[in-house]
Amino acid sequence: MATARFQNLLRHIPFRIFMPVVMTVLLFILTIFQLILPMMQERLMDGKREVIRELVVSAWSSLEGYARQERQGLLSREAAQQQAKTHLRGLRYGPNFKDYFWINDMHPRMIMHPYRPDLEGKDISTFADPAGKRLFIACVEIVRAKGAGYVDYQWQWMDDPTRIVPKISYVMGFEPWGWILGSGIYVEDVHAQISAITRKLTLVCSWILFAIILLSVLIVAHGAKVTHEKKQAEEMALLKQEQLFQAAKMVSLGTLVSGVAHEINNPITSVMLNAPNLGRMWESVLPILDRYHMQNGDFPVGGTVYSRIRDRIPPMLTSITDDARRVRDIVKDLKDFARDNPSESMEDVDVNEVVHKAVGLTANLINKSTRHFKLDCQVDLPPVYGNAQRIEQVTINLVVNACQALPDAERSVTVGTGFEADRNCVFIAVCDEGVGIPAEALMQITDPFFTTRREQGGTGLGLAITDRIVRDHGGTLTFDSTPGKGTRVRAIFPLAKEPQQPNRQVD
């Protein structure tokens, strides 16, 4: 009997109401897979191209460092080249840490290849991929024409010589030694990401389509039931009822179309693409840069120094996440699909522990900048309420600024902590015997993009970010400086609401 009722219901479903809804949904799905996904694939590919370009530029900087030692007479050319090859041979990046760099010369001959040592020292001018492309000749040609550029070809998958796949590499000439440095991405990586996104979109669209069809069937079924109950009513009543159905259909269709458009355009193009991709790019590059930084100290990246840009990237990603969160609040229909990013954890923080960690992270810079460094932490400090990583970032920024202000290694830097009972606060103090800050500049020292070191590559964002973090913790950042004698900076933080005195002592 239930089957008979269902068949009777289907006979009463108006085809002209049901099909437009389905066709509209199918049109949106077609738009996703034929327009948005190809656009996302192109953006992913562009993003990966930019990543390998930045990686090659960074590796190129290490070559320049070895060449500089040669010019200064610290190393012979043979020793400098050997150390450079050894360094680059060991560099890996990527999700599995199997992506690599290689070096050939302008002949071309293979200088170094971590996965094809059998080619090293050999003439590779006739070496061709399975499609017949002389890829190393192409690398030489683009370096001669432009100095750097992209080359596409087929190559083995990482360290698997049996698997040949399409690859795009960025090559950059190193003129002092006549070398060409390169690294590449596998096109299959992008295809795999797109496939994963496609599977998720297919699942989401299937549920949306199912919900829309079910809702449409229920709406039409209700109308069919009303029509059946009023089958003996006058012709005019039936006409008005039909008009009511049409109006309800248009309202429902408009709502559904608007919701689907927002669900696709906003989260897919803004959140699901940009923020996660940037995060993954940064996470994949960060271990290499950190390792290089710990081994070689600060180095220039994008017009500033690495120790500064390293701490500026997370706030940028946080800003992207905040924007996504605002979009989520505006577009209410995204609640079923959007996921909140966890907010920064706020807890009781041991300031001495944070300062020791920050000093450890900047030890290489400190040792290069001064022979007179002192760490003076007050024992048994009460905890402050905040985010340990942010407070560590404040300390690192202040230490870096202090080291950069020193004219020579005979000047000192002192980092300390203390407790002010009258103000019920804990402070971090960084003092240097550097060049000092002019009085007229002190009023603007924390303004964004204001810097007294623009000629040395300063961006004017380090202290602005530091001041913002301190203020976000309810604290203040104070400066006391005398030109020619030095500067004392204090980051002052309020105590936690229920401070507990630590038992251990800090050396």
The topology string of helices and strands comes to: HHHEEHEEEHHHEEHEHHEEHEEHHEE
Low-confidence stretches: 329-343, 499-507
> Mind telling me the C-alpha Rg?
31 Å
Instruction: Count helical runs.
Output: 13
Number of strands: 14
Give the terminus-to-terminus CA distance: 84 Å
Enzyme class: transferase
Transmembrane segments: 17-39, 201-221
Catalytic activity: ATP + protein L-histidine = ADP + protein N-phospho-L-histidine
Main location: membrane
Q: Could you please describe the fold and organization of this structure?
A:
Its EC number is 2.7.13.3. Keywords: Cell membrane, Membrane, Phosphoprotein, Transmembrane, Transmembrane helix. It catalyses: ATP + protein L-histidine = ADP + protein N-phospho-L-histidine. The chain is an alpha+beta fold and 507 residues long. It has a domain at 347-494: Heat Shock Protein 90, CATH 3.30.565.10. 53% of the residues lie in helices and 18% in strands. Helix 6 packs antiparallel against helix 8 (306-330).
Short description:
It is a multi-pass membrane protein. The protein has 507 residues and is α+β, with helices and mostly antiparallel strands.
Keywords:
Heat Shock Protein 90; five-stranded mixed β-sheet; flat; 507 residues; disordered C terminus; alpha+beta
List the helices and strands and how they pair.
Layout: H1 2-12, H2 15-71, H3 77-89, E1 102-105, E2 110-112, H4 135-146, E3 148-157, E4 160-174, E5 179-186, H5 187-229, H6 235-271, H7 274-296, E6 300-301, E7 304-305, H8 306-330, E8 347-349, H9 351-361, H10 363-369, E9 372-377, E10 384-386, H11 388-404, E11 412-420, E12 425-432, H12 439-442, H13 462-472, E13 476-482, E14 486-494
Parallel strand pairs: 9-11
Antiparallel strand pairs: 1-2, 1-5, 3-4, 4-5, 6-7, 8-10, 11-12, 12-14, 13-14
Helix pairs in contact: 2-3, 2-5, 2-6, 2-7, 5-6, 6-8, 7-8, 9-11, 11-13
